Amino acid sequence: MLTVAIPKGALLSDSIKLFQKIGLDFGDFLEPENRQLQITDSTNNAKALLVRATDVPAYVEYGQAQLGIVGYDLLLEKAPVVADLADLTFGYCRMSVAVSKTSPYKRTVDIPPHGKVASKFVNCAKDYFHNLNLPVEIITLYGSVELGPITGMSEAIVDLVSTGKTLKQNGLIEIDTLFESTAHLIAHPLSYRLNYCQINSWVKKIRNVRTS
Questions:
Q1: What element of type H or E holds 46?
Q2: What pLDDT digit, counting tens, does each position of 139-171 carry?
Q3: H-helix or E-strand containing 69?
Q4: Residue 197: per-residue pLDDT
Q5: In this predicted structure, what is the pLDDT of residue 77?
């Protein structure tokens, strides 16, 4: 049986629609009263797992799912051992550096050495500042990182930005972009190479509808 890992949250609806286009119906996940964490499409001998977006790479890497959908940001942050098969183009956002609109820092390189930067995406932030040869202290936060500059805990934040509305409402502005992110199709490497559960045929269908 083919098992796919589908992320909760912002990518859920578009992920369901994508699978529906290739004949896999996991639409019950979209029902408000639904509490199921797995749904089986018995007609196609396929099953979907509904998991936190941050957990999708792990489910695929360790073989509980042969395919998964995950944001490119999490692929870079988690660095899982998976096959990155396709950019699905939906779920656009960007990883950005942001500061208070009253901050004197207009570019990332203006942040002073050993300044403080708050982020949920610690590895992405570390790599970015390392490549700039700018030593900073990364403060790991799991909630609203926007509070970092507001409270004075940090000079800046590194976070995902979609519309920018949250930043604006909290008096923050973007000063640089690390990278852009969209949803990606990933696969368990061994299962993909062995074409387990005819993965290659499903991947081909996904690529076809993505480009149609």
A1: strand 46-51
A2: 999 999 999 999 999 999 999 999 999 999 999
A3: strand 67-71
A4: 85
A5: 97
Structure tokens at 118: 């708050």
Task: Assign domain 2-91+182-211 to its CATH superfamily.
Answer: Periplasmic binding protein-like II (3.40.190.10)
Buried b (16+ CB within 10 A) or exposed e, 50-62: bbebbbbbbbbbe
Is the overall model pTM greater than 0.85, yes or no? yes
Sign of CA dihedral 155, 119, 157, 153: negative
Q: What is the four-CA torsion angle of 62, 37, 12, 143, rounded to 10 degrees?
A: -80
Is the pLDDT confidence value at 203 over 70? yes
Contacts of 115 (CB under 8 A, 6+ apart): 136, 137, 154, 155, 156
The pLDDT tens digits for 62-81 are 999 999 999 999 999 999 99
Which DSSP symbol is given to 37?
S
Q: What SS3 state is found at 127?
A: helix
Domain range summary for the chain, segments of one domain joined by +: 2-91+182-211, 93-180
DSSP H stretches of helix in the chain:
12-21, 56-61, 72-78, 122-131, 147-151, 165-169, 189-194, 199-211
Tokens encoding 126: 């570390």
93-180 and 2-91+182-211 share a CATH fold:
yes
User: What distance, in Å, lies between the first and last C-alpha atoms of the chain?
Assistant: 27
Check if CATH label 3.40.190.10 holds for domain 93-180: yes
